[in-house]
């Protein structure tokens, strides 16, 4: 069955809500343009992100990238709009007030702030996979699972966990194309505490990680390389991109494994 790119998600500020776009550019550094381009740090230079504090889930973000601005909203504070160049100090103060941690915001236009520095390309998952995971947790919708796992690229077509075909044994990669863009699948993405929390409140789902790992192990497809699972709390595929120029991907692009 053919495989098609159906969603592209970017997250301009690490750990804040992202936005859906119809096309994006894969930079020579591997990341999607503007994805995780900004991040919050404390006075010691450590990340202030959703792994560190569940309070960040309370912040809603509405993006206007052509205007290079974001409107932030929270129950704890009035909404406000910030220019991403001119209002960084004010933006950091607003967020720090919500988190009760003094923060500063930093930008890395080339490369962003990926979780995996060695496989910094966009993360990939199948829509059918998200549907299967949602079924493991009665009451959670596919959209909520999508928000919790925050993959960049969503593919439609075929069975659940088909994205597991995009990695092999350790030390090997799987080359594939999205439209004319070429990527290398490297490994199943190790998850953190974030997916166990409600995306808009931070409320924890009891035993989320245990339930997920048990179901992931029980439903592991025959095509999945089991040797890549030292534990089963893994979902989506990390990628690398080796290109000397910008590559453009668009909703509707066909996806094909090379070779």
Could you name the ranges where pLDDT drops below 50 across 5 or more consecutive residues?
Answer: none
Q: How many beta-strand segments?
A: 15
Q: DSSP strand (E) fraction?
A: 25-35%
Shape: globular
Number of domains: 2
Account of the 3D structure:
By secondary structure, the protein is α+β, with helices and mostly antiparallel strands. It contains four helices and 15 strands. Strands 1, 2, 9, 10, 11, 12, 13 and 15 form an eight-stranded mixed beta sheet that branches. A three-stranded antiparallel beta sheet has the order 5-6-7, with helices on one face. β5 (60-64) and β6 form a beta hairpin.
Structural features:
4 helices; 259 residues; 2 domains; 8-stranded mixed sheet; 15 strands; alpha+beta
Produce the secondary structure layout.
Blueprint: E1 3-10, E2 19-21, E3 23-26, E4 38-41, E5 60-64, E6 69-74, E7 77-83, H1 88-99, E8 104-107, E9 124-126, H2 127-135, H3 142-149, E10 153-156, E11 174-178, E12 181-190, H4 208-218, E13 234-240, E14 247-250, E15 254-257
Parallel strand pairs: 9-10
Antiparallel strand pairs: 1-2, 1-10, 1-15, 3-14, 4-8, 5-6, 6-7, 11-12, 11-15, 12-13
């Amino acid at each position: 069955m053919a495989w098609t790119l159906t969603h592209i998600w970017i997250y301009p500020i690490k750990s804040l809500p992202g936005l859906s776009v119809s096309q994006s550019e894969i930079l020579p550094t591997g990341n999607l343009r503007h994805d995780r381009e900004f991040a919050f740090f404390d006075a010691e230079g450590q990340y202030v992100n959703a792994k560190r504090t569940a309070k960040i889930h309370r912040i809603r973000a509405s993006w206007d990238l052509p205007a290079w601005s974001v409107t932030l909203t929270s129950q704890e504070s009035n909404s406000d709009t910030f220019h991403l160049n001119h209002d960084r100090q004010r933006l950091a103060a607003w967020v720090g007030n919500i988190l009760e941690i003094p923060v500063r915001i930093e930008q890395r236009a080339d490369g962003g702030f990926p979780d995996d520095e060695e496989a910094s390309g966009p993360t990939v998952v199948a829509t059918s996979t998200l549907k299967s995971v949602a079924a493991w947790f009665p009451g959670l919708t596919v959209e909520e699972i999508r928000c919790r796992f925050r993959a960049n690229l969503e593919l439609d077509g075929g069975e659940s966990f088909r994205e597991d075909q995009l990695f092999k044994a350790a030390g090997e990669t799987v080359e594939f194309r999205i439209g004319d863009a070429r990527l290398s699948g490297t490994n199943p993405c190790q998850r953190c505490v974030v997916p166990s929390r409600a995306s808009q409140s931070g409320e924890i789902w009891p035993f989320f990680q245990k339930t997920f790992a048990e179901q992931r192990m029980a439903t592991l497809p025959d095509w999945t390389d089991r040797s890549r699972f030292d534990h089963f709390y893994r979902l989506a595929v990390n990628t690398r991109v080796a290109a000397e120029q910008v590559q453009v991907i668009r909703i509707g692009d066909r996806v094909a494994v090379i070779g």
